[in-house]
Write a structure and sequence with these properties.
Blueprint lengths: L2 E7 L3 H13 L5 E4 L7 H9 L4 E2 L4 H4 L7 H10 L2 H9 L5 E3 L4 E4 L5 H9 L5 E3 L4 E7 L2 E6 L3 E9 L5 H9 L4 E7 L1 E5 L10 E9 L5 E8 L3 E3 L1 H9 L1 H6 L3 E7 L7 H10 L15 H11 L12 H12 L1 E10 L5 E6 L4 E2 L4 E2 L5 E3 L13 H19 L1
Parallel strand pairs: 1-2, 1-9, 2-6, 9-20
Antiparallel strand pairs: 3-5, 4-5, 7-8, 8-9, 10-17, 11-14, 11-16, 12-13, 12-15, 13-14, 15-16, 18-19
Helix pairs in contact: 1-13, 4-13
The structure holds flavin-adenine dinucleotide.
The site of flavin-adenine dinucleotide has 37 residues, from helix 1, helix 2, helix 7 and helix 13.
Amino acid sequence: MKVYDVIIVGGGAAGFFVAANLLSKSQNFKILLLEKSKQVLQKVKISGGGRCNVTHACFEPKELIQFYPRGNQELLGPFYRFQPADTIQWFESKQVPLKIEKDKRIFPKSNNSQSIIDCLLKYSQNIDLHLSEALIDFQNQNSLYQVTTNKNLYQTRNLVLTTGSSKEIWNLLTSKKIAIVDPVPSLFTFKFVNPWSHLSGISVKQVCLKIKDLPIQSCGDFLITHQGCSGPVTLALSAWAARVLYYRNYRFDLIIDWTHQSLDWEQLNGFIQNHHFKELHNACPVDIPNRLWKFLLYDYAQFHSKKWGQLKENEKNKIFEILTHTVVPINGKNTFKEEFVTAGGVDLKSINFKTMEHKLYSNLYFAGEILNIDAVTGGFNFQAAWTTGFIVAESILKK
Ligand SMILES: Cc1cc2nc3c(=O)[nH]c(=O)nc-3n(C[C@H](O)[C@H](O)[C@H](O)COP(=O)(O)OP(=O)(O)OC[C@H]3O[C@@H](n4cnc5c(N)ncnc54)[C@H](O)[C@@H]3O)c2cc1C
């Protein structure tokens, strides 16, 4: 039976990054990469709408971890070793120029995920790549792992699991007493009980969203869709609240603050004085599109047409309430097609983040989405795959 130095299970971003980094230091490694489907790097292919949002222009580890609802504490050390600046350097040194967009997302200059795929494949050329071959089981015997697939048996000194959000592998790991945090979806959009379809396409900058009765909030750009809402702020909130919303079956009250928490009574009174003779719908104290303002006034809050100077005290309260506390009942979620991930996976307490090795199984490593790590949208999920993959390769090389 052939003995490998390393068997990597899963031909996604994390698996190929481990392989490429191992081979960049030594071409003598005997590496087998097992991929259960017929093609590798399929998620990279479709990522970022086919452009692959490889990472994010955030170069301070303490700031970077704030984008990870799960894994933020554990990733701090790893980000000091491999962070977005290193990702940029890694790809650019391999002739894949990258560009930073206005919102700090980073893409290949080609605007084509194939550039990333070609690069990962080129720098992993010397591995044995077995497609349509799935890991079924593994056993640790005499410091070697016996690896059973649907086709064959192998032995390896190091076993690296990068199988993403695979239920079969999480079940296999559970059977080996490796703790798994229950997987639930993350990064989704919300469905309104009564959609604001006629406002679909309207976007508002810097909105703050909260979930009623929960201390979870997100601020950022908001988009009204045909069925509900989307945009970076919605996706971020879905990530931070992924688990609690799953258990609530995605039924909850969304609270929208259109003022980015910046409106106070003094400002509102000043605005009223300055717009005394204007109709309510012809002037809004915050910068939101007029169609949305009219809807909030007349449909949502049921105001009758009047001038700012005619408002009674209780009506002023109501205006303040609409602007800072619009309540929208939600009864479901939709998949965000550009990016979605799973919250849950291998329990981070069981992993040594200096090596990405399991604390009880030596020479068993994990990288990427198989771990209970996930981030908001914007390139952070790939960054976690690059960082954890890099550390796996470094640890194996050290040994
Ligand atoms: C549509 C979409 C768009 C996205 N866009 C972005 C983006 O632009 N930026 C970003 O940062 N993130 C993005 N993400 C998230 C990102 O793709 C993932 O975080 C990342 O791909 C995780 O990489 P991975 O290698 O850990 O897992 P995966 O990419 O899921 O790879 C795991 C591999 O393991 C294989 N496998 C599973 N079980 C077995 C088995 N038993 N034996 C052998 N092989 C097995 C699978 O077939 C798969 O090829 C997107 C996700 C989706 C779904």
